[in-house]
Write a structure and sequence with these properties.
The chain has 221 residues and is of the alpha+beta class. Helix content is 17%, strand content 33%. The strands form 3 sheets. Strands 1, 2, 3, 6, 7, 9, 10 and 13 form an 8-stranded mixed beta sheet that branches. It has a 5-stranded mixed beta sheet with strand order 4-16-15-11-12, with no helix packed on it. The longest helix has 11 residues. The structure holds zinc ion. The site of zinc ion has 7 residues, from loops.
């Protein structure tokens, strides 16, 4: 399914999808559950735009390639470019919206790549590896340090986090990223996953939400 950014009211967002910048281990509890050390500076990787699919009634699992883990994350959409250590005001002005997203991961493959000291790309960038819901406009969310992210599977809450528990909060995170490389309108930042990651199975019914702002149902196929 082709992807185009849109708001929750169905309005299409005109700028094209860019890259998806991801931060690993941004919640201490999640780093611990995978026996990873908590990083001393943000751990970044990039998913290409080609792996993004919209969160519709269903989404496809690359189940022929090993275990696919879900990671529910708060996605931040940029509507303006950011580069070279932008100010807090510039960062806030550049954010267009927020959405719940799934960073899908071929966990066994990632573990074998990690063990060899290789990049994770092929475990994180397969077609369909980033599932993005429509965005809540930025002006609807006033406090970036109090945004919830929740994922339920088959009626049971599996992940229930809040941006207040991020090791790198959203604004300093975007400043850090833009200090390393330029961000453009249409780029998306996945801000890390809280504890509770696990495998997805064919037929799993998901509810993915930014509690109080947006809520979506979907099915893994
Ligand atoms: Zn992730």
């Amino acid at each position: 399914m082709s992807y185009q950014h849109q708001y929750v009211d169905g309005t299409r967002i005109h700028f094209p999808l860019g890259k998806v910048v991801c931060i690993g281990r941004n919640y201490a509890e999640h780093a611990h559950e995978l026996n990873n050390p908590v990083p001393t500076e943000p751990l970044l990787f990039i998913k290409p735009g080609s792996c993004v699919v919209p969160l519709g009634e269903s989404f496809a699992l690359a189940a022929d390639r090993g275990t696919v883990h879900y990671e529910a994350e708060i996605a931040v959409l940029l509507g303006k470019p950011l580069s070279r250590k932008p100010s807090t005001e510039e960062v806030l002005d550049a954010i267009s919206g927020f959405a719940p997203a799934l960073d899908l991961t071929l966990r066994e493959l990632q573990n074998s790549l990690k063990a060899k000291g290789y990049p994770w790309e092929v475990a994180k960038s397969f077609d369909g590896a980033c599932v993005l819901a429509p965005f809540v406009p930025a002006d609807a969310i006033s406090d970036l340090t109090d945004i919830g992210i929740r994922l339920s599977i088959n009626g049971a809450v599996r992940q229930d986090g809040n941006s207040r528990d991020m090791l790198n909060p959203i604004v300093p995170m975007l400043q850090h990223i833009a200090g390393h490389f330029s961000l453009q309108a249409g780029d998306v930042i996945l801000t890390g996953t809280p504890a509770g990651v696990g495998p997805l199975h064919n037929g799993d019914e998901l509810v993915l939400e930014l509690p109080g702002h947006s809520r979506f149902k979907s099915c893994a196929l």
